[in-house]
Amino acid sequence: MKRYGVLCMAAVFSIGAQISAYPPDNAALIYYKYMVNFTRPDEVLWNQITDAAKGDAEVTEEVQRYLLEDRSQLITALRTASEISNCDWALDYSEGLSMEMSHLGAMRDFTYILLAEAQTKKQQQRPQEAMDICLSTLRMAGHVGKDTFISYLVGVAMSGLTYDAIGDILSAIPPDNDLLAELRRELKLPEYNVLELKTPMLNESRYLSNEILRIHDRKQEVIEKLYGSQGGEQTIPPLLLKRDPEFLRRCANYYRDFFDRNIKIQELPYDAAIRALDELKDKPQKDFQAGQQEAFPTLVLAPAVARIYTLSIRHQTHRNALFTAIDLYRIYAEQGSLPSELPGDCLFDLFSNRPFMYEVTADGFILRCHEKEQGKQQPWEYPFRIAK
């Protein structure tokens, strides 16, 4: 059983805001409130919920009963919170790697519950309600994914689950031009914009460079927690062990410069960006071996930026595929058949920076990427069905 109790309550109080009216002007207050007493149901029921949310199984009677009898208040509260534009989680970046982010696991659990509710509405032939719930989860993902790398990864996962759910709903109902037009209009609003990687990268650079500067206050803890895996204290630069302030500033500046270069590279097309990121990834190791001791903290702390960047391209491409599918469904709703080619103004597959490959199938259509992402055997594809 998973609980989000004392830590969430402490976070609520740390925000320092008074709730004088409901809903408050900070969505995090509502989220934290419901995290305090939230527990997952037993494993069997939870697996049924997640399978239903992902569209891998029908929504069972047990799941429907749980959502209606045990979680209706939570569902209403989450949807209310999602409508609030401001969401401040009261993250304390000065804590560095010790920063508390207990809300992330709970928000992913809440996403499964909302998407299981959306799948329930789909089964009940209530597609507009199902779509409205999916829009709520996308707004929640926006609340989550703007802070740090870990926040971004969770927000992207929430968005990906929701894009899949929207596609599943569209594949289960006869194309309705009014519903499709409204869905497309909603998804173009700022609150549904693709999650941007730049801000989490800047935040990550800021709080980890601060972590480096704080070594003089936390010498033993940092050495044991961060640097021991590099081969023991004998590999750590002596100036780091001595907590030399000027050396620590050089280390922090090296880290910030490393992240600035990573951010600049991401303006390139995917293939060129991946090559440049892979080359940059090895720079701290090479610099340290060449005698630049200030590269050491970056060598230890820097995350796998190329993988996270690839995930951001996958996230944006998934969204573009969904928009393209909506446009194709609208054509079908208006003309009674799918076009032989994609409309000229469709969004691109960002792995190749070209329009998606498009194939009409016996029961719908498939959109495919031209190029595969790094580490994958096949390009991504997105199948959609046309319900009669």
Number of helices: 17
Class from helix and strand fractions: mainly alpha
Radius of gyration: 23 Å
Main beta sheet strand tally, sense and closure: 3 strands, antiparallel
Q: Which whole number gives the mean pLDDT?
A: 89
Q: Please provide the count of β strands.
A: 5
Would you list the SSEs in sequence order as H and E? HHHHHHHHHHHHHHHHHEEEEE
Low-pLDDT stretches are: 230-234
* Terminal Cα span: 42 Å
Q: In one word, what is the shape?
A: globular
The helicity comes to 55-70%
| Neighbour order of strands in the largest sheet | 3-4-5
Beta-strand fraction estimate: under 5%
Report on the architecture of this protein.
- There is one protein chain.
- This protein is mainly alpha-helical and 388 residues long.
- Among the domains are: 129 residues, no CATH class; 108 residues, no CATH class.
- It has 17 helices and 5 strands.
- The strands form 2 sheets. The protein has a 3-stranded antiparallel β-sheet with strand order 3-4-5. A two-stranded antiparallel sheet has the order 1-2.
- A hairpin with a 3-residue loop joins strand 3 and strand 4.
- The longest helix is centred in the C-terminal third of the chain and has 31 residues.
- The two termini are 42 Å apart.
